[in-house]
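User: Reviewer 2 asked us to show a designed sequence for the structure in our supplementary figure. I'm pasting the structure tokens here. Could you produce the per-position amino acids so we can include them in the response letter?
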């Protein structure tokens, strides 16, 4: 991978990596730090990149950076609530924006209560649209294990959202 190509990858995938890390750690400043760490590690380990798809590779690097951070900082950081950002917000009226933000925040809060593996499975498959195989490889589990985690995560999220609806 060339230097110029790496810069374009950074620009193209920066937001995806940041949003993924924000979902995992729920702290914007930590997500920013981990995003920078992800791209630093990606630069250092370009030799290990073997022509696979870029996004799953970067998210795997991001996940590893998160795991390292979590082990080191476990229990020492107060997490802030998620603030939803939707790309097509400008096209909606104020009332629609408010309702959409509320819905996204309810989903994110329900997701936050899930065990880590279920949460990551739901984020990767439902938010980012990864295939089962890609998500399983990213999480370093079998596709069957991913399907179980995804099924349980989706069901638990639905249960929690039913309890919240008015």
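Assistant: Here is a per-position design you can include in the supplement:
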């Amino acid at each position: 991978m060339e230097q110029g190509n790496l810069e374009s990858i950074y620009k193209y995938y920066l937001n995806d990596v940041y949003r993924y890390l924000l979902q995992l750690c729920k702290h914007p400043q930590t997500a920013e730090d981990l995003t920078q760490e992800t791209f630093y590690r990606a630069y250092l380990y370009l030799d290990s990149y073997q022509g696979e798809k870029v996004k799953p590779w970067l998210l795997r690097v991001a996940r590893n950076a998160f795991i390292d951070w979590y082990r080191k900082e476990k229990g020492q950081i107060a997490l802030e609530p998620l603030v939803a950002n939707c790309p097509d917000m400008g096209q909606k009226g104020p009332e629609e924006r408010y309702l959409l933000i509320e819905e996204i925040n309810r989903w994110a809060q329900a997701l936050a209560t899930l065990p880590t593996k279920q949460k990551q499975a739901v984020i990767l498959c439902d938010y980012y649209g990864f295939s089962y195989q890609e998500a399983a490889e990213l999480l370093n589990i079998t596709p069957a294990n991913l399907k179980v985690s995804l099924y349980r995560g989706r069901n638990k999220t639905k249960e929690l959202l039913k309890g919240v609806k008015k």
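For the response letter, you might also mention the following. The longest helix spans residues 3-25. Residues 75-86 have pLDDT under 50 and may be disordered.
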